Amino acid sequence: MRKVLVFGNSASGKSTLAKRLAASEQLAHLDLDLLAWQATNPPTRVPLVESAKAIEKFMLQHEHWVIEGCYSDLLKVAKEQSTEIIYMNLSVDDCIENANNRSWEPHKYTSKIEQDANLAMLIQWISQYELRDDNFSKAAHISFYQNYTGAKKMLTTNS
Length: 159
Fold this sequence. Notes:
Elements (H helix, E strand, L loop, with lengths): L2 E6 L5 H12 L2 E4 L1 H4 E2 L5 E2 L2 H14 L3 E5 L2 H8 L4 E5 L3 H9 L11 H6 L1 H9 L10 H10 L3 E5 L4
Parallel strand pairs: 1-5, 1-6, 2-5, 6-7
Antiparallel strand pairs: 3-4
Helix pairs in contact: 3-4, 5-7
């Protein structure tokens, strides 16, 4: 009964790995981006309680799953039910390269043009990963990784 949490910086390969695991092992897949943000401009977070309820509902509906995202606060909701974690700890430069090479994500954007319009902002966000002290930061991810008592793996390259 595999229940995996995949996390790391933006464009670290979380979605790619999660989709690969979901397809190869028939795991239900949850991308936390889809329930973490309200459709406002600028985007604002959904209240943590609401996101937590959505995660709990997902876990109740699926026996085997992979949940991925950069939100350490939301990962904590699933931590106790997970069987393992995978920390995508790529360098900032590798994440920026991944962002520049990212294919269109139709579940997040209506077009590749719309997605690319956010690229400069995304690269700035990625660049601040090691400097921030929020739920999306390297410090938060390392703390989550170090405090996890189950099976865990840290990946530092795309391969």
